[in-house]
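Example 3.2
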Amino acid sequence: MRRAKILVTSFVCAIVAIGATSGNMFLALAGIAMGALFMALVRRRSGEVYFDERVEALGGRAARATFAVMSVFLGFLSLIFIFIGRRTGDGGLEALGTVFCYVVCLNCAIYSITFKYFDREHGG
């Protein structure tokens, strides 16, 4: 729990710094809002340790759903950016779409590798 809070705090600080230095206050505010939301969701309500199979199963289902939604979303967004960039001649937009394509491919590769690893480790 402590590591998660430190990680979220570091992430929020980085997002706010990037938003402030680039003049994009919406990015800074979005980072603060997401950090506050995450901290409110993971706040401990009791002093005892609460972790069971249900929490682990829900976390796995949430991770798979997030992976599926974000992969499809970034895939479509990358295609849109590439096509708009080529049509308008904006090389930056096309490059951003290409980076998103690489991110989706890397995301799928990491998911496949970790799935195979956990399958092997847990008797699959």
